[in-house]
Write a structure and sequence with these properties.
3 helices; about 20% strand; HIT family, subunit A; five-stranded antiparallel beta sheet; alpha+beta; 5 strands
């Protein structure tokens, strides 16, 4: 089920087609996981279903299940990689819900006790730092 409002030129669709670079952590038949270039905490990553959908409100249930399974796998690896105290998972749907990129995606963010999250859509991370964080997560997978 694809929304009539789905824009195939969104940044994640371009990443999925190989038109834009990313720091890829994981890929399977239905999903990819990449580093968020504007992380709210070290190790912040995104799980993106390959099937086109705008958000939680129109995603196919099988694609959603695949995305959640991948998010769980990456949450476990990321928690271990960063010796985190916990993990926050977020999914924003529509502008009023905080969504900025209109292709379904799940944020997976390792959390440390008493350390607040950075701002949503904050500054871009240094590419070298992102790669180092990605290497830690890939090693934990």
């Amino acid at each position: 089920m694809t929304s009539t409002n789905y824009d195939p030129q969104n940044i994640f669709a371009k990443i999925l087609r190989g038109e834009l670079p990313c720091e890829k952590l994981y890929e399977d038949e239905h999903t990819i996981a990449i580093m968020d270039i504007m992380p709210r905490a070290p190790g912040h990553l995104l799980v993106i279903p390959k099937a086109p959908s705008r958000n939680l409100l129109d995603i196919d249930e099988d694609a959603l299940c695949a995305a959640i399974k991948t998010a769980r796998k990456l949450a476990i690896a990321t928690k271990a990689a960063f010796a985190a105290d916990g993990v926050t998972m977020q999914q924003f749907s529509e502008p009023a819900g905080g969504q900025v990129v209109f292709h379904t995606h799940i944020h997976v963010i390792p959390r440390m006790d008493d350390v607040p999250l950075g701002p949503h859509g904050g500054p871009m991370a240094d590419a070298t730092e992102l790669k180092a964080h990605a290497d830690k997560i890939r090693a934990a997978l």
